[in-house]
Amino acid sequence: MKKSILAVFFGIITISVMAQKNLIPGTDGNKYVPYDQRTGNESVVYFTRNLSAEGLIKAYEQVAENLSGHIGVKLHTGEPQGPNIIPSAWVKALLQKDLPQATIIETNTYYEGDRYTSEQHRETLKVNGWTFCPVDILDEQGTATLPVIGGKWFKKMSVGSHLTNYDAMLALTHFKGHTQGGFGGSNKNIGIGCADGRIGKAWIHTTPNQDNQWDIANEEFMERMTESTKATIDYFGKQVAYVNVMRNMSVSCDCEGIAAQPVVTPDVGILSSTDILAIDQACVDLIYAMTADEHKDMVERIESRHGLRQLSYMKELGMGNNRYVLIDLDNGGKRITAAEAVKGLKPFVKK
C-alpha cells in the first residue's frame, strides 16, 4: 500500500487503538509447551485422516449442532491459481449436503494485488472456482466495529460491515505456515480474515506514522490478531464452529499464491471442534509430534515468528482450552494421542 493511502487511515488508527506506548507484548512465542505441562479443562477435537470431500463432511458434521440461521462460511479463497487452498470441489460438496443456504464470506486484502478491491477480488473468485454459491465480500460496502472484551491492544475491531448480517459462522481453514504469524489456523483465518482490508487489517499490522505496513511482528502481532478474532467469535457466541484442513501445508500463507514455498510437510488430515484454541493447539501438536525430518521446516517457521504466542494468548483471554480429547473418527471414535494421529505419515507428493 502506498504511503499516501496509509496516511488516510493513521488518524483512525490513533483514535481506535489503545495507548500503545505503555503496552508490553507477552513473551515465549518461540517456546513450545508439551501437553503434560498444560493445565485446565479438556475440549473435544475430532480427527480424520480422510482428506477428501467425504472427510470434510464427516469432520464438519461432528460440530454442526449449534449452527443455525444465516450461516457464513469463513474461507480463505486464495490468490489466483493458488496451489494449496482447500479444493473448491470439497467445499461445494459440503455446502450442497449440509449447508445449502450458506454463504462463503471473505474480506479484501490490505496489500495491493488481485484481491485488493472488490472488483479484483470477484475476478479472482471466478479464477479459483468459487462460483457454486454466493460469496459475500464483507467489506464491499464499508465497515462495522465490534467490541474487544478484555483486550490489551484494542477496545474495538473494525470488520467488514456485512459480518453482522450473519447468525452463525463456520471457520473453514486451511492450516499451514505463515510468513508473519508462523502458522495460520482458525485464529488467523478469523482475526485477519474478518478484519476489513483498509482499517482493521491496518490496526493489526501497522504502527502509525512509518513506512513499513508490516512492522508489527512477533508476540505483539499474535496478540493483536488474536484480539481481532475474539471480537468476532464473541459476537457469534456459541454459533461458531471450526474445521482445520491439514493438507498442502507450505510454510507460506495462501496469500502468496503461486509464489508460496514448496510443500515439504506431510499431509495429515482434517480436524473439527467448537473450541478455537483446542483445534489450533491440536494442529500445532500434530506438527510437533511428527519426526524431525517431517516437521523441521514448519517448526522453524512457527518458532522463528514466535507464532506460539497465538495459543498462549488465546488461553489468557479465555477463548478456549489448550488441552483436549482427540477423537479418531476413522477408528470408532476412540481417544488417541497426537503421536498416534501422525504415525506412519507418507512424504508429501504434489498432486
Short note summarizing the structure:
This protein is an alpha/beta fold.
Give a written overview of the molecule.
By secondary structure, the chain is α/β, with parallel strands linked by helices. The chain is 32% helix and 18% strand. It is built from eleven helices and 13 strands. The strands form three sheets. Strands 4-3-2-7-10-11-1-12-13 form a nine-stranded mixed sheet, with helices on both faces. It has a two-stranded antiparallel ribbon with strand order 5-6. β2, α3 (88-98) and β3 form a beta-alpha-beta unit. α7 (218-236) crosses α10 (309-316). The longest helix is centred in the middle third of the chain and has 19 residues, at 218-236. It is globular, with a radius of gyration of 19 Å.
Can you give keywords for this protein?
alpha/beta; two-stranded antiparallel sheet; 32% helix; 351 residues; 9-stranded mixed beta sheet; disordered N terminus
Q: Helices, strands, pairings?
A:
Elements: H1 3-16, E1 42-48, H2 53-61, E2 71-75, H3 88-98, E3 103-106, H4 118-127, E4 135-137, E5 143-147, E6 156-160, E7 168-174, E8 176-178, E9 182-184, H5 186-191, H6 200-205, H7 218-236, E10 240-246, E11 269-273, H8 276-289, H9 292-304, H10 309-316, E12 323-328, E13 334-336, H11 338-341
Parallel strand pairs: 1-12, 2-3, 2-7, 3-4, 7-10
Antiparallel strand pairs: 1-11, 5-6, 8-9, 10-11, 12-13
Shape: globular
Q: Low-confidence stretches at least 5 residues in length (pLDDT < 50)?
A: 1-19
Characterize the largest beta sheet: strand count, sense, and whether it forms a barrel.
9 strands, mixed
In terms of structural class, how would the helical and strand content be classed? alpha/beta
Helix content: 25-40%
Order of neighbouring strands in the sheet with most strands = 4-3-2-7-10-11-1-12-13
